């Protein structure tokens, strides 16, 4: 049976040899897994870790502070929890509303947290309950992030819908990425691709791959 470190090495090699893969950032999503797995991955050289649940993420980041890892928050962000999350998460992948941006820091309130890197999450489904901003509100949100003293806009993020070919979903996301770059030319990153669809995401311009189970193995418990 292969270990997480071996699966990590295999996926790293595959990413590195794929077209555009050399520049991609691999974020290993470790939600539901114990801190010991994060330590194992760190020992194998992995620096970027993804989490989606506060306070589980907070506790892992605090317990493993000495490892000096980069923590990516990829789950839905609640307005009320946003500042708490931004204390330990270096990169926020799920900014999806103007309210959320304001909760992280608007002009009046002094910042008690470092400026964080942020992706604007786009909803590629027709279901508003899914995370992400509706495509027609994307530009306004991106401008709001640009204007926030709390955030540095990296680009767009999305999760491929379950009922659509990932290729068409990620092609649409690439179009949204271009709309954001028209406003913010430096926001050239794209967070897309999970265990099942990262190869397709990379073909469509993903720069940040969020891979969980293909590296960590099955999660110990599910939501
Ligand atoms: C859990 C999760 C992932 C990783 O999913 P896998 O299918 O385990 O690779 C990626 N992105 C987000 C937003 C997630 O919640």
TrEMBL record:
Keywords: Pyridoxal phosphate. The modification N6-(pyridoxal phosphate)lysine is found at residue 31. It comes from the Bacteria. The keyword Disulfide bond does not apply. Residues 9-220 form the Alanine racemase N-terminal domain. InterPro entries: Ala_racemase_N (IPR001608), PLP-binding_barrel (IPR029066), PyrdxlP_homeostasis (IPR011078). Belongs to the pyridoxal phosphate-binding protein YggS/PROSC family. NCBIfam families: YggS family pyridoxal phosphate-dependent enzyme. Pyridoxal 5'-phosphate (PLP)-binding protein, which is involved in PLP homeostasis. This is Pyridoxal phosphate homeostasis protein. It comes from Agrococcus versicolor.
């Amino acid at each position: 049976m292969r270990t997480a470190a071996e699966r990590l090495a295999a996926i790293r090699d595959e990413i590195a040899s794929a077209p555009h893969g050399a520049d991609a950032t691999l974020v290993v999503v470790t939600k539901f897994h114990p801190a010991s797995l994060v330590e194992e991955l760190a020992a194998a050289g992995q620096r970027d870790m993804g989490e989606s649940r506060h306070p589980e993420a907070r506790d892992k980041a605090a317990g493993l502070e000495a490892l000096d890892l980069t923590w990516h928050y990829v789950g839905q962000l609640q307005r009320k929890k946003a500042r708490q999350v931004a204390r330990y998460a270096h990169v926020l992948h799920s900014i999806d509303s103007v309210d959320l941006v304001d909760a992280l820091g608007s002009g009046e309130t002094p910042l008690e947290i470092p400026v964080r890197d942020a992706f604007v999450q786009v909803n590629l489904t027709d279901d508003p309950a899914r995370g992400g901003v509706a495509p027609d509100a994307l530009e306004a949100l991106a401008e709001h992030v640009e204007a926030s003293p709390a955030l540095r806009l990296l680009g767009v993020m999305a999760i491929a819908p379950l009922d659509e070919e990932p290729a068409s979903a990620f092609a649409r996301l690439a179009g949204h990425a271009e709309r954001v770059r028209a406003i913010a030319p430096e926001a050239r990153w794209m967070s897309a691709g999970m265990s099942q669809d990262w190869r397709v995401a990379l073909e469509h311009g993903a720069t940040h791959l969020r891979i969980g189970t293909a590296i960590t193995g099955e999660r110990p418990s599910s939501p």
